[in-house]
Amino acid sequence: MKGIVFTEFLDLVEEKFGLEMVDKIISQSELASEGVYTSIGTYSFSEMLQLVTNLSGNTGISTDDLLLVYAEHFFSVIKTSYPGLLETYKDPIEMLASIENHIHVEVQKIYPDAELPTFVVEEKTDNSIIMLYKSSRAMHHFGLGLMNKTFEHFNSKASIVLEKIKEDGTEVRFIVHKI
């Protein structure tokens, strides 16, 4: 998992819960990196899982809710760092439909060894999209948060239903209807 995901997560934790919480969740985790991350480094997903799990335990906020909030924060990082990417699209459905064939291609150019989830478009109309999310990492709520911010970015609203296909969250269907 790319370091930018870790550095931005810890920035968010510091912003929302304070530096003491950052130190606490790092201390509670068994991290090969010892909690030292660079945005261009590559780190084990298990480290992110430990950090999120420990933050959840210390705050009482579910890991799914934490991933949702983190994704919304991360969208602002994308918006600031890669504005051209978002300007390519005029509609949130169009943007979601292009995750696999355009957005992930661009991410791979910047981070060639990034391990990205797969998004398969099962059905698409002008106002709806059904996508299958597949990943060895159950971070579907991160994807949900990015989708929420995508609609907000386009001054639009959506109904997004998350349907777990595999109970562990490694395969999920997103049913999205633009409102």
Walkthrough of the structure:
With 179 residues, the protein is α+β, with helices and mostly antiparallel strands. The chain folds into two domains: 59 residues; 96 residues, H-NOX domain, CATH 3.90.1520. The protein is 54% helix and 16% strand. It is built from eight helices and four strands, in the order H-H-H-H-H-H-H-E-E-H-E-E. It has a four-stranded antiparallel sheet. A hairpin with a 3-residue loop joins strand 1 and strand 2. Helix 1 crosses helix 4. The longest helix has 19 residues. The chain is globular. This is Heme NO-binding domain-containing protein. It comes from Polaribacter sejongensis. Pfam families: HNOB.
Quick rundown:
By secondary structure, the protein is α+β, with helices and mostly antiparallel strands. Helices cover 54% and strands 16% of the residues. The protein folds into two domains: 59 residues; 96 residues, H-NOX domain, CATH 3.90.1520.
Per CATH, the class of the largest domain reads Alpha Beta
DSSP helix count?
8
The largest β sheet comes out as: 4 strands, antiparallel
The end-to-end span amounts to: 34 Å
Q: Element order, helices and strands?
A: HHHHHHHEEHEE
| Low-confidence region ranges | none
CATH level 3 topology of the largest domain: H-NOX domain
Strand order of the largest sheet: 1-2-4-3
Percent of residues in helices comes to: 40-55%
- The strand count comes to 4
Overall mean pLDDT score? Answer: 92
The overall number of domains is 2
Strand content: 15-25%
Content-based structural category = alpha+beta
CATH architecture of the largest domain: Alpha-Beta Complex
Shape category: globular
Radius of gyration, Cα only, in angstroms?
A: 16 Å
Specify the CATH homologous superfamily of the largest domain: H-NOX domain
